[in-house]
């Protein structure tokens, strides 16, 4: 498992570096990301069957619109949410999660880290080439005659000083890049842990609340919604500020469950307004 995880990370890093090497602008990277995500979501939603079959099946355009809306967390749909089956709700949850601001910011950090890693490699090659040039010059100088050294002494000193100055600057730049890489790596871990913590804690609280409150539990029973799917979907949608809920009435059906609303309010803040301050 460790070997697979390591090879996967290396392959993912290589692909990102390859994209950065092509000089693709971040705008086009993000556009391509959301287009691919929306198309994959559309295929997943199309392959999986809605629970209203055979009486009703959404049109392909409606499904594609819902996929794009979920991937861009715009919360617009031309299909009632209760039409989607449990599997389709899971796919929508993944789309919302991957399209949320927190996850996309994490991906931006990976792109920045790959770009800086590439700069580090270029600097290391520059330092190595400078060291090799100095070693060659030193070897040639040691084999020359005293008279040649006497006549070219000042020239050699200037060249050596230039090389040493270049190497010193390159090493300082390399140290700065190392600090940036460590900072980005640490920030990536913080964002990953932050996201995982909010989603796990939030969905757990929603599940526990619905399990112990009969009125909320009855709503899911009447609408034939899976408890864990509903909890995860609602938490991810709230955290990503999407607004989708697996019920046709959105959260209006839970207007008597004020505690559930209080559980969701912090998730809205943590995924949007308080996202940046929480990382400080």
Describe the structure concisely.
With 280 residues, the chain is mainly alpha-helical. The protein has helices spanning 2-21, 26-47, 60-71, 86-99, 101-143, 146-212, 214-222, 227-239, 258-270, 275-278.
Task: Give the helix/strand layout.
Blueprint: H1 2-21, H2 26-47, H3 60-71, H4 86-99, H5 101-143, H6 146-212, H7 214-222, H8 227-239, H9 258-270, H10 275-278
Helix pairs in contact: 1-5, 2-3, 2-4, 4-8, 5-6, 6-7, 6-8, 6-9
The fraction of residues assigned to DSSP E strands is under 5%
Low-confidence parts, pLDDT < 50 over ≥5 residues? 1-6, 143-156
- Strand element count: 0
Rounded radius of gyration (Å): 28 Å
Order of helices and strands: HHHHHHHHHH
Share of helical residues: over 70%
| Coarse morphology | flat
Largest sheet: none
Give the N-to-C terminal Cα separation: 34 Å
Average pLDDT number: 79
Describe what you observe in this structure.
It is a single chain. With 280 residues, the chain is mostly helical. The chain has a domain at 22-50 and 57-100. The chain has helices at 2-21, 26-47, 60-71, 86-99, 101-143, 146-212, 214-222, 227-239, 258-270, 275-278. Helix 1 (2-21) packs across helix 5 (101-143), helix 2 (26-47) packs antiparallel against helix 4 (86-99) and helix 6 packs across helix 7 (214-222).
């Amino acid at each position: 498992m460790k070997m697979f995880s390591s090879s996967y990370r290396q392959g993912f890093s290589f692909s990102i570096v390859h994209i950065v090497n092509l000089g693709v602008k971040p705008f086009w990277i993000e556009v391509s990301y959301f287009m691919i995500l929306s198309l994959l979501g559309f295929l997943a939603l199309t392959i999986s069957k809605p629970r209203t079959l055979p009486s009703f099946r959404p049109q392909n355009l409606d499904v594609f619109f819902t996929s794009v809306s979920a991937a861009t967390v715009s919360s617009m749909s031309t299909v009632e949410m209760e039409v989607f089956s449990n599997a389709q709700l899971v796919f929508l949850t993944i789309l919302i999660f991957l399209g949320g601001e927190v996850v996309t910011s994490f991906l931006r950090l990976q792109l920045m880290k790959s770009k800086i890693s590439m700069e580090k490699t270029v600097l290391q090659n520059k330092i190595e080439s400078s060291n090799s040039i100095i070693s060659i010059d030193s070897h040639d100088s040691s084999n020359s005659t005293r008279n040649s050294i006497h006549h070219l002494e000042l020239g050699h000193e200037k060249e050596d000083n230039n090389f040493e100055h270049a190497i010193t600057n390159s090493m300082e730049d390399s140290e700065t890049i190392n600090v940036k890489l460590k900072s980005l790596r640490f920030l990536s871990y913080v964002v990953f842990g932050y996201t995982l913590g909010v989603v796990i804690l939030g969905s757990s609280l929603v599940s526990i609340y619905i399990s112990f409150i009969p009125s909320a539990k009855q709503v899911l029973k009447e609408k034939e919604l899976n408890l864990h799917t509903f909890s995860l979907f609602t938490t991810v949608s709230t955290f990503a500020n999407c607004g989708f809920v697996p019920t046709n009435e959105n959260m209006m059906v839970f207007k008597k469950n004020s505690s559930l609303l209080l559980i969701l309010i912090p998730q809205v803040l943590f995924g949007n307004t308080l996202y940046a301050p929480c990382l400080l």
